[in-house]
């Protein structure tokens, strides 16, 4: 045991046990079999269980030594508490290794793929080497749930973004069946997460972008993911997501009816512009900042016609136009010939200004379109500093300054006829990420408040510790006792409950 590596030692034990079995078969009295074999097992395995596990298990698991792990499991099955000890060390290894995947922010880019690969590897070991032993399967799940929640919120966010990457139209590397398998594996990881509301918030935001910018790889895959989430978390979790799909389907019908009405209308001059409008129900979709921008006269006229058409069919409703989500195809004329440019509405508004001016300063563009400065800088950067430079920036440089000037780039060439200029809407900004996290935080505050009031209304009077215990049973996301205490204080301030006059540790419900 001291001289040999663990795999060699296990081989030695196997060989010794076989030798004793042969001796029993050939010339030893069979009634001594039990005593003899038990003695060998005790001396060679039982006495060294902890030593074997400490010395070599991590390495065998790390190097995926399936043959040696199978032998280890079979030998440990022969002694009392052998599999229990093996299972405990297996669990400790998964937690230790898993934590290194989750905890390091530098590994965030590959975290989800690493988790999926790690889970596959461990599942294979349980199924192949440990004979699908239920005890090991449960231990594996418990270890994953433990380490994935060692870092709050981030794994949930990254899993949602991984699903977005897989469900986007650009993801051509997987067939329908492969995509389905990936989604099933993702759902296993999703089950381990405690803060599922974080996943929901990012998933909802990304789904909205996929639907609105036409980036979804397949409606079937989207619906499949939705039904998996519904099965896992219930209809309440997915009702808003289902509402988003319903809105898109209703919008298709509305647009069809609108186009028919336009053909019969007197606005012939607008018929060479093809307008598609998505009608989104406020409560279903993520909240987007309302931005006022200056639209060209034709678009304003078109919006007004659509408003009249829609409100004639649905009286009592209110339409609020959302320019941040719009996208357009512009026909552009370059020296090398005509091109179609796929752009966001903001990019379109900037480009249309060059129909009337050869060169325009940043401030002039800003005055003309009234887009917020940060948004305008990003828009101009994508048009003048990206891969497809349809504008030329003076002076040259990567960053856009308020003192810059811009010219239409007549010499622009590209082998494609339809060119997609990177759409800012698809890129998540840091502010957007923070806003999503903030929204989750706010929602949690409301949920805690509602749970406290619900419990107090039912119990009428309760001690602090019992109230905290009840809250932990009811809340579906991780929360610190200090945060609960803050919410209790807030409800006392707002007269939903009060401290008992005789016992400061007791709360009474105020009807």
TrEMBL record:
One of its GO terms (biological process) is DNA repair. Pathway: Protein modification; protein ubiquitination. GO terms for cellular component: Cul4A-RING E3 ubiquitin ligase complex. Gene3D superfamilies: Cullin Repeats, Cullin, Chain C, Domain 2, Winged helix-like DNA-binding domain superfamily/Winged helix DNA-binding domain. Residues 154-384 form the Cullin family profile domain. GO terms for molecular function: ubiquitin protein ligase binding. Keywords: DNA damage, DNA repair, Isopeptide bond, Phosphoprotein, Ubl conjugation, Ubl conjugation pathway. The keyword Cytoplasm does not apply. InterPro entries: Cullin (IPR045093), Cullin-like_AB (IPR059120), Cullin_CS (IPR016157), Cullin_homology (IPR016158), Cullin_homology_sf (IPR036317), Cullin_N (IPR001373), Cullin_neddylation_domain (IPR019559), Cullin_repeat-like_dom_sf (IPR016159). Belongs to the cullin family. PANTHER family: CULLIN. This is Cullin family profile domain-containing protein.
């Amino acid at each position: 045991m001291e001289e040999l590596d663990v795999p060699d030692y296990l081989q030695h034990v196997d060989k010794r046990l076989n030798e004793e079995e042969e001796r029993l078969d050939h010339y030893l009295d069979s009634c001594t079999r039990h005593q003899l074999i038990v003695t060998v097992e005790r001396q060679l395995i039982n006495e060294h269980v902890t030593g074997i596990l400490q010395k070599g298990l991590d390495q065998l698991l790390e190097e995926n030594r399936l043959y040696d792990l199978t032998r280890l499991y079979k030998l440990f099955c022969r002694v009392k508490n052998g599999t229990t000890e093996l299972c405990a060390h297996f669990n400790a290894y998964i937690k230790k290794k898993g934590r290194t995947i989750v905890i390091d922010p530098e590994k965030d880019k590959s975290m989800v793929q690493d988790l999926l690969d790690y889970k596959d590897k461990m599942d294979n070991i349980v199924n192949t080497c440990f004979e699908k032993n239920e005890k090991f399967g449960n231990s594996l799940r418990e270890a994953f749930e433990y380490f994935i929640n060692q870092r709050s919120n981030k794994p949930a966010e990254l899993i949602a973004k991984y699903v977005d990457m897989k469900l986007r139209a650009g993801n051509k590397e997987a067939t329908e069946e492969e995509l389905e398998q990936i989604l099933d594996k993702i759902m296993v990881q999703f089950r381990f997460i405690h803060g599922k509301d974080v996943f929901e918030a990012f998933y909802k935001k990304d789904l909205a972008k996929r639907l609105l910018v036409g980036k979804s790889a397949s409606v079937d895959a989207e619906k499949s993911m939705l039904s998996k989430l519904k099965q896992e978390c219930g209809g309440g979790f997915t009702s808003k997501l289902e509402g988003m799909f319903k809105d898109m389907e209703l919008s298709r019908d509305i647009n069809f009816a609108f186009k028919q009405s336009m053909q019969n209308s007197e606005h012939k001059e607008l018929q060479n512009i093809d307008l598609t409008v998505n009608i989104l129900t406020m409560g279903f979709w993520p909240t987007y900042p309302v931005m006022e921008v200056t639209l060209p006269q034709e678009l304003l006229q078109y919006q007004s016609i659509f408003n009249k058409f829609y409100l004639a069919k649905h009286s009592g409703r209110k339409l609020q136009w959302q320019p941040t989500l719009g996208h357009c195809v512009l026909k552009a004329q370059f020296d090398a010939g005509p091109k179609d440019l796929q752009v966001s509405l903001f990019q379109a508004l900037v480009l249309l200004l060059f129909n009337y001016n050869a060169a325009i300063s940043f401030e002039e563009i800003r005055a003309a379109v009234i887009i917020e400065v940060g948004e305008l800088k990003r828009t101009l950067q994508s048009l003048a500093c990206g891969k497809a430079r349809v504008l030329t920036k003076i002076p040259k440089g990567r960053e856009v300054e308020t003192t810059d000037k811009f010219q239409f780039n007549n010499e622009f060439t590209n082998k494609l006829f339809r060119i997609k200029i990177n759409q800012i809407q698809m890129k998540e900004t840091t502010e957007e990420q923070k806003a999503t996290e903030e929204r989750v935080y706010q929602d949690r505050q409301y949920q805690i408040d509602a749970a406290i009031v619900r419990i107090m209304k039912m119990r009428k009077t309760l001690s602090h510790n019992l109230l905290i215990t009840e809250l932990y049973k009811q809340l579906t996301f991780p929360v610190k006792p200090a945060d609960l205490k803050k919410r209790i204080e807030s409800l006392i301030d707002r007269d939903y409950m009060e401290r008992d006059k005789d016992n400061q540790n007791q709360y009474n419900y105020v009807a």
